[in-house]
Write a structure and sequence with these properties.
The chain has two helices and no strands. With 56 residues, it is mostly helical. The protein has one domain.
Amino acid sequence: MKKLISVAMLITILLTTTYALSATKTFEREYTYRANDADSKLTSRAIALEQVKRAL
C-alpha cells in the first residue's frame, strides 16, 4: 500500500512538473499560396493551412 502511494505521488509530481515546464510556441514565417482558377476562397485557405502545417 505504501509503495502504491509512493508511485502515485511520484507520477503526480512528474506530470505537474512537465506541465509547468511546457510553453506555447509561436512560429512566424511568410507563406504565399498561389490559387488556381478552380480554387475558391475557402479551398484556397484550407489548402494553404494544410501546406503550412506540413512545413512546420
